[in-house]
Amino acid sequence: MARIFSGIQPSGTLHVGNYLGAVRQWAATQADGDALYCIVDLHALTLDIAPDELRARTLDTAIGLLGAGLDPDVCTLFVQSHVPEHTELTWLLECTASYGELRRMTQFKEKGAGQESVRAGLLTYPVLMAADILVYDAEHVPVGDDQRQHLELARTLAARFNTRYGDTFVVPEAVIPAIGARVMDLQQPTRKMSKSTATPLGTIAMTDPPEEIVRKVRKAVTDVGNDVAYDPDTKPGISNLLELLAAATGGSPAQLAAGYSSYGQLKNDVADALVELLAPVRRRIAELEADPGTVHAILDKGSHKAHGLATPVLDRARAAVGLTARRP
Ligand code: TYM
Hints:
Layout: E1 2-8, H1 16-29, E2 33-39, H2 41-44, H3 51-67, E3 76-79, H4 85-94, H5 99-103, H6 106-112, H7 120-134, E4 140-142, H8 148-165, E5 173-175, H9 210-218, H10 236-249, H11 253-257, H12 263-289, H13 292-321
Parallel strand pairs: 1-2, 2-3, 4-5
The chain binds ligand 1.
């Protein structure tokens, strides 16, 4: 059984981009392998977040993931900071990575831009991410398109470590969906939909009620002209709506475009499709919100299992670099 690993930051309510780019795949393929899904609370500390917010969002994210269809009897759902092997392996990998390659990461440049003081953790963020993956010998990593470069770095670090110290890590592969890998902001369709977006109207949360979804899709920014065509370069707004429709209902965005003669008609169908797609997710989330004790128990069980898997891999890496064995 292939080992599958992926992670998500507890940085707010999950949105349609998270769902279509990543989480839907996690749920769909959880039974195809030995799947681990992680709420990466340590990654959230790279930007400013209040302690109470972090606590609340960690639970909310767990609820969102379970609501989106993760089955704790099938996959392992856990919190990153509950498994300290992630951070210990990070150090070994930080001594494998170079400052130059971390500084060149697109997300580091974007997230650090304009900040008076950039946290060192923001620079080393992708190394922690590599450790998340490598500490489980993960083969497949289902992510959206924005994580492509970080995955490449994880592969580079695994291969470099293996060359330097002998075969230690599995070199992981990104699994990126053909459609929905880069959902754009509805108000600024040249920017990806993001939890930290400046335009709340541009982001559809998984928990948005139907009337809110309809309102946001109706207000979505469109492009000059009025022909419905799929061309992300010249028609980013309409192309994003077509991509959302394709991801929600199947088919390809270009084919779907042929069935529409007006923007309004397309928007109605996108809104209907998203309302239908998210209705069961929203229902399950509401049920779980009433039962946080069960969610904490699921996370505890997951952390215990993950810890058991991570320990031997970390020991292998420690031995490879020449750290002496720890006495029990
Ligand atoms: P995060 O928390 O930003 O996003 C979680 C997942 O959602 C995907 N995603 C999107 N997909 C399509 N369109 C969008 N607009 C969109 N926005 C987000 C992301 O690609 C991701 O798959 N660094 C990671 C978390 C992480 C991780 C890992 C992932 C930490 N360690 C190890 C995989 C393996 C992040 O910040 O994702």
